[in-house]
Amino acid sequence: MFLRKTLPLIICFLCGVFAIVGFFSAEGTSINTYYEKLAKWNSIIAAFAMLLGIGNLIRVNFIKITRNHQDKLFCAILIASLLITAFFGILGGVMPTKPVFYATPGKTFDLASIPIITKNSDRQIVPVKIDSWTAETGSVNLTTFTPPADFKGDVNLVANYTNEGKTKHINIKVKVHEPGFKEAASNFVLNKCAYIFEYFIKPLQSTMFSLLAFFVASAAFRAFRAKSFEATILLVTAFIVMLGRVPIGTSIWPGFAGISEWILSTVNMAGSRAITLGAAVGATAAALKIILGLETRYLGGE
């Protein structure tokens, strides 16, 4: 009883309280440092949970295949797709987390084209004002970088900036090659995972959303009927927004674009924030119930 219910509740309470206190602590304090370590441990545990889920997914679909289930073809496609993507991702790596930029030998590269951002003490993403750049080779200043005319290869640029009184650095990789250069994979598996995402998963996602458009149009046709005052407002607003977002609307009257933009940026934004705030309050209440032990269904009980 202790290991199945009491101990998990104690761990959940301690981790929850520590995470809340650490999140609202100032950056650089000891409790904030341990909070960041706890967040990394959370990612590690989530990775193991994902591994467990993948194993269960393979097991369930493999059983369907062996039992000659009517959906065995789809089960086989799912398992094959999972294993192939995992194979290329583990051996060849996935898409780089840091972007790589390309420059031509002897030609000036605009450093302003590199988007550099960071987080302030309030964890807000803000743009970075660069104080200076340094490079392993070539000439560099605050705005441009010029690689040597006879140089080909990778150059590591270092952007130096000041954030809240502290000097910090960001490493940027620039590949210097002739115009039209396309980086080739050095072996069969390199970058294939990114290829799968770019040319298989993204088109499939676009296809799924395109199919959903027909269901949305059908639902909108049934909902947009002026049966009441509220339904009339919904109908008129949707009609104006639709005309403001398509070329034919601005051809009829240019003012549709401005009204549509105002509705989306003001009225719609206010409603979205209200919904987000309500959802945040609900999520906070649910989290407090779990931390305080009032909600125990996640332990497998009733």
Q: Runs with pLDDT <50, length 5+?
A: none
Give me the secondary-structure category: alpha+beta
Overall tally of domains:
3
Write down how many β-strands occur, each being a DSSP E stretch of 2 or more residues: 9
Structural notes for this entry:
It is a single chain. The chain is an alpha+beta fold and 302 residues long. It folds into three domains: 2-92; 100-176, Immunoglobulin-like, CATH 2.60.40; 224-291, no CATH class. Helices cover 57% and strands 15% of the residues. The chain contains seven helices and nine strands. The strands form three sheets. A four-stranded mixed β-sheet has the order 1-9-8-5, with no helix packed on it. It has a three-stranded antiparallel β-sheet with strand order 2-7-6, with no helix packed on it. Strands 3-4 form a two-stranded antiparallel ribbon. A hairpin with a 3-residue loop joins strand 6 and strand 7 (144-146). Helix 1 packs across helix 2.
